[in-house]
Amino acid sequence: MNEQQLVAEQHKVTRKEITVIGIVLAGAFLAILNQTVLSPALPKLMDAFSISAGTAQWVTSIYMLVNGIMVPITGFLIDRFSTRKLFFVSLISFIVGTALCAGAQTFELLIVGRVLQAAGAGVQLPLVGVVPMLIFPPEKRGTAMGMAGIVMSCAPAAGPVLAGGIIDAWGWRMMFWAMIPLAILVLAVSFFLLTNVGELKRPHLDVPSIVLSTFAFGGLLYGFSSASTLGWGNAVVVGSIAVGVVSLAWFVRRQLHLDEPLLQLRALKTPTFAYSAVIVTVVNSALAVGSVILPIYLQNVLGLTAFETGILMTPGAVSTIFLSPISGMLFDKFGPRVIAIVGLTGLTASLAALSFVDDKTTVAYLVAFYVIQSSGLTLANMPVTTWGINALPNDMIAHGNAISNTGRQVGGAVSTALIVTVMTMVTAANAEAGPVASTAAGIDVAYGISAAVAAIALIVAVLKVHNTKKRAVATPAPQAEAPRAVDLEEAREGAGR
Fold first, then answer.
1. CA atoms within 13 Å, Cβ hemisphere of 432
2. Which residues contact 456 (CB under 8 A, 6 or more apart)?
């Protein structure tokens, strides 16, 4: 057997490893489905609990807030606990939270349920970002993540339509009840088939870092999210943001001086990964608000039903299903630069086009640019993320993934709060024009700000994203073989950990 054949044999993925990836993807699917089903429900929740758009956005903001607190510690959790334990505990938390949401009689109890859902999803989503990276070699990771993207894109494709139909027929509560059997089924399958991935390092748990992380990201997200309802001059808003900023600075300083940090921020010293994290954060900052304002526009401006809202949001999600594997293969073959620039250009242009919608906008116009928006995100997000992760050694992948996910959550939550606040202010300022026209005016400004933010990501990509594929493939032997951390013997022993 020659050297090339030997390397290929070492990188051969077993059926057991494919099963592990499938189960982890199923968990991520539920987490993403849980996010997308809420979009058509927001106007219904506003009516059911007699709350404003600023208050209703807490349903999504609290999810991102808890994720923002959880994600920084996932690097430690993945190093410290086995895949099975993390998956079981997180999925059980998700199930309990979903049941609370389904039975919630007050908006406050609904928020508690969302907290438990987010705690589970905060582990599920990082797992799907880490496990395939550990199993597949660098030169195959683009294709692997692209194929994974097919499964994960099915949730945004199915979620709005299913949720819209269920909401119109049986109400918003059934949307949560219907999710519980699916989660229980995944839990049962994982109990028998899920094995462990990677090597446990037994790192030291630095409690002060957890406290600082909670105050840092929790304070920032709570402060910005509260601004839309309490106002920027409110003492709670100002105090929360101040606590968040101070705690974040302290948290960063502590991580850089610890031998075993909770979050390995030294990964940002790798320029490729740092630029990748910046782009991903900015992109998600531009898009996070869309899940709030688009359903409001479709139902409150165009007068559509929840089911019709889901139908119109489906083509965008379907486009990601087709483009995910294509973007992965293009990344493996050509590198990230052209794909990222094309995707971010389409994303920026589509958001700019959506900033001109009003009550006379045609459905064809809306759907066309929403598809371009979704396609642009698919072409840019995965290649840029994989490009950055590939630049890290295998023992830094979990921490790199945690940093990127933290950026997504913090950027998304902060931008949602800021843009919804601006949208609310513009809507109020145009109140004399009537509810429909004033709402449309606020939504136009929101999309305009999102387009400007996306343009920043495009500029960074043009200046800093370069094709490093050849250097990644030429990684020294120890690094190339590291993804075989899931060897057959460990897999056999995994269930017993």
1. 1
2. 282
Answer yes or no: do 213 and 183 share one domain.
no
Q: How many domains does the chain have?
A: 2
Any domain includes 8: no
Amino acid at 483: P
Whole-angstrom Cα distance, residue 160 to residue 157? 7
Q: DSSP 3-state assignment of 247?
A: helix
Chain centroid to Cα 317, Å, comes to 15
Task: Give residues with Cβ within 8 angstroms of 339, minimum separation 6.
Answer: 327, 330, 331, 379, 380, 383
Distance, in Å, from the CA atom of 418 to the CA atom of 232, rounded to the nearest integer, reads: 10
Hey, which bits of 154-300 come out as E strands? none
Q: Does residue 82 fall inside a structural domain?
A: yes
- Do 392 and 270 meet the contact criterion of CB atoms below 8 Å apart? yes
pLDDT tens by residue, 394-434? 778 877 877 887 787 777 777 877 787 788 888 888 888 88
pTM here?
0.69
| Pair 101, 161 in one domain | yes
Distance of alpha carbon 386 from the chain centroid: 15
